[in-house]
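so the lab meeting is tmrw and i was supposed to have these ready like two days ago... anyway. pasting both below. for each one the top line is the aa sequence and the line under it is the structure tokens. i havent really looked at them closely yet so no promises
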Amino acid sequence: MSPIRLIARPMLAAGYILNGVERLRKPEAAAASVGPLLNQARKQVDVPVDAVTLARATGVAQVAAGSMLAIGRFPRLSASILVGTYLLDTVGERLSADKTTSKEEKKVRNERTLLRTSMLGGALLAAVDTAGRPGLWWRTQHAAEDLWSSVEDTSKQALSALGVD
């Protein structure tokens, strides 16, 4: 692992871990933000979980995925999980925002949304970071090209053996 990744991953993960711990310590506060999102989901499908349980579950996911990202284990998967849980936070918070809030409360909410958005950007970058190795798409494309080349060579050899050119 490069020195930059060695330093950057724990720095990025720290905010997510802290958020997850806060969700576990005070799930009721987090439930207020995911509640409206859960209500929207219940209009479409039956969701057999309450907002407090969802808040705790996302807290556990954030602590676990953040810890894994910090130590460099399954960093792309961990970052993807963090993106998903933080999207719940961000969208839920925006849905639960009271329309009658003061200018100061709106300013704080907008700053928090900007912070969350920047953290999401960092996690998205971590989710697609292959650490200089070829990604799945590149490997698949090259494997297909190699397979096609093998099929062509085998076909030419078979036709040559049959005396058909």
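ok protien two:
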Amino acid sequence: MHEMMVAQSLMAIISNEAAKHDAKPVVARISCGMLNSINDEALCFAFEAIAKDTLYEDLKFQIEHKPIRARCETCKVEFEIELSRPECPCGSEKFELLADAPLILEEIDFQTD
């Protein structure tokens, strides 16, 4: 379960940032591509297990999935694919999938007292 390794990496980054700001993190915003192999529920479960009985126990995750992008072989335009209708705006169904968006820790909100 590589979600545990991802959760441990996120915990290390969040912990570093919390120390820099001398504050308790309350929300972590993460983004990743729709085709990534990370299971949202497994990631949240792994983080909850790591954070149990720590300063980070109440931290909430918000995960945003970036759309799938492709390049049309006919008109060369880059576009977002709608899974219900996988075609270019020009109507062509010939396209190449572009690299999926990586998992990124976008932002951390800290409790202010």
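from a quick look at the 2nd one: The chain has two helices and six strands. The helical segments are 2-21, 40-51. will dig more after coffe
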